[in-house]
# Entry
Amino acid sequence: MRVTWHLGDPFWRVAGARRLTVDLPEGATVADALGSLESQYPLLGRLLRGEPLEDASVLGPAWQVVGRTLPIQVFRNGRAVRAEDRAATRLEEGDRLYLFLPAVGG
# Structure
């Protein structure tokens, strides 16, 4: 089954593309898709886990995130998937997944 990730900033900078298509087995979950993304794009995996990047300049000067775990937000077909639901949320062929940092402000 194929799903498409849409990556927000700074994630797309590390992956090198704003959209990525990944192949997953039938019955895969959002957590599986995140794991696949991390294994196919090791630098992205390091960023998501808060591990240091060898070359953080790829993030651009505005992103000082190295060394801490990022509070990611994942959406499936436009609907938020809470962190505690990612392992139970099954995917279907053609799903669109979105990976962003949460927006804060007022």
Summary: Residues 2-100 form a domain with the Ubiquitin-like (UB roll) fold (CATH 3.10.20.30). The first strand starts at residue 2 and ends at 7. The chain has one domain: 2-100. The mean pLDDT is 86.
